[in-house]
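Quick one - first record:
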Amino acid sequence: MQNFIKINDNDNVIVALNTIPEGAEISLEGGFNVKANMEIPAGHKMAISDIADGAEVIKYGYRIGFTKEAVKCGDWIHVHNLKTSLGDLLEYTYEPTPVEEQKTEDVTFMGFNRPDGKVGVRNEIWVIPTVGCVNNVATAIAKKANEFVKGTVDEVIAYPHPYGCSQMGDDQENSRKILADLINHPNAGGVLVLGLGCENSSIDVLKPYIGDYDENRVKFIVSQEHEDEIEASVEAIKELIDYAATFKREPISVSKLVIGMKCGGSDGLSGITANPLVGRFSDLLISKGGTTILTEVPEMFGAETILMNRCANEELFHKTVDLINDFKNYFKSHNQTIYENPSPGNKKGGISTLEDKSLGCTQKSGSTLVKGVLAYAETVKTPGLNLLSAPGNDLVASTALAAAGAHIVLFTTGRGTPFACPVPTVKISTNSALASKKSNWIDFNAGVLVEDKPMKVVEKEFFDYVVAAASGEKVCSEKAGFHDFAIFKQGVTL
């Protein structure tokens, strides 16, 4: 295994794959040697040429910031001597990047065909509260109802949340849309919608958002109307289990799969191993007619033009410009800095600026054309690569991906996290040390890509793994019984 990587020929930094001791000599292509002037931690950057004060630092072939002071060849480059080069709202020009669309042979997974034409990768029963007041009741119902699970039904799961009342404007509207999206999600073979009876987003208010529904699949309980709401709910779930148990796994084309893509707790290897691997997966799935969704808009800042110029047409370009600028204005409306530095964990892992993180983050998008741009709580309609408006927060963004229609979320991480979202959440480690230490969290190790295992081999292994997960193989968070749910709060709480 080599001790460093130069990602792009135009870069003036390398990334340490292992800690480079002070005084160690690095041999670059062309017979050029660089001596480390100080210890360079794993995942961090080292200058491979002198860089003047205020000059560009280049990584991934793009600028990731300006130096705060003159940097010598062999110096460590991080937050102490590097600052963002980004500003506020920008003017963008559509300069389409030529992309050759690929078609590859179809593959099948074992999934559940639904009567409405959708497909599911799980056959669960979901308990969806309309309001936070009945959260504990929903949890108690799910616990009791799991005694009656049978056949192909996986389990009964409650999704508590603190909203559905005391909300105004967009917050209330978004809560209703997200709840309706989950109620209609095909991974749920049956859904119990649990209301209180006096909330703003009551069942009667929510029904128009749900639209047409199968009465065998979706049932409603208003807690204030029953002497024992838990008993009534369990009886309703027994009927839902009977219905859901009629579905059997059968071969389905992967063109029907919708896969969400998200990263969190990044490190210096995120943009070198796990994120590019997910990008290759995205390209491969799309070549078979499938769909992927990329989100966390604030972590596109600094790399947004790459996505804009891959938009399939000018209308999508303008939607992407709005996607970016609307989020910038959201920051500004709350008097917050648009280009806030990465989180403490990101910095510790070697990420120095938002551009540094964004250029690594957008590696997950692969190289295909952008075919759709979605508002928060909007569901996917167009096959291919889609961009979704949601923040960087792991739970909120992953929930948004599930609500948009993702059957599975691919989550890359260099630091590790146990969380899950309403759909199977596959954790991909950027480094082997994390995969070894937290095998109870990590589902797939992309760290082998810097240990001389070829991308082609790892890409196939990973694609096969995701197909297996879609066919019913439980991921780590499912085995642990973790199911998280978070709605994006932006405004006033009454």
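second record:
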Amino acid sequence: MLKVDNVTKYYGPLKAVDDLSFSVKPGDVFGLLGVNGAGKTTTFRIIMGLLDFDGGEVTLDGEKIDYSVTDKIGFLTEERSLLTKLTVMEQAIYYGILKGMTEEKVEKELDKWLIRFGIVDYKHRKIKELSKGNQQKIQFITAIINEPKLLILDEPFSGLDPINVEMFKEVIKELEKKGSMIIFSSHRMEHIELFCDKIVVLVEGKSVLKGSIKDIKKEYRKKNILIKGDIDKTKLEKIKGVLKIIKKSDEYEVKIEDEKYIKDVFDYTTTCDNVTKFVVEEPSLNEIFVSRVGEKYE
């Protein structure tokens, strides 16, 4: 298990990480979210043992994270971290040896993943000759080539087309099933909802939202109602608890303050003609994120 307990990090007078705590168990995919500058990258570097911190504790399976355990960790950074003058093979060997692997083991694993991602012909090509998407594949391969117990993925789908995004998703799901601990960061909330059960949202280094996505949505209380039919938007807006109405193609999305107002909206729709849809949905994680992060900046 990865445990981050009350970690604090200063850069001079700036508190980049503020008393942050969370844990990730084997087989968990944990979401670490925040706007740019929220403290995510600093947190990743602390977990990796690349940065000292000013308070708290970080352990992996009960051990302090240092060079004796970093060979159990994989890290895909948001920025390109490839040495572009090296070939794909040379790059993989470089990272693999840093993680305690032999050249023979690196090549065996590399061949397996090159086949999986359909880029076998690039094995001896220089990184700089590859497209952005294929560079991202190589960066992903070097992050998982050591079969890490802990895998940190920072914007893993950057530069990928939809087909390759699906390929990455399959691999991440496989690693989850094998028991890897995965920390996932993305600005695409639909990706977070797809992979993660639990999240932490950071604002200026401090957790402003934490817990299971299911519980967070339940506690948020606001709901969305999708209605298809001949409704009068003006009359609907006057119903108590209705916050906003958005016209979407041939239906309306009605945002309400609390589930207790569902019945009032439903009762109104029974007076309307041709109502063929009335569906109550939880708000999206994106809505909740914007609401909570926005509140902190107001």
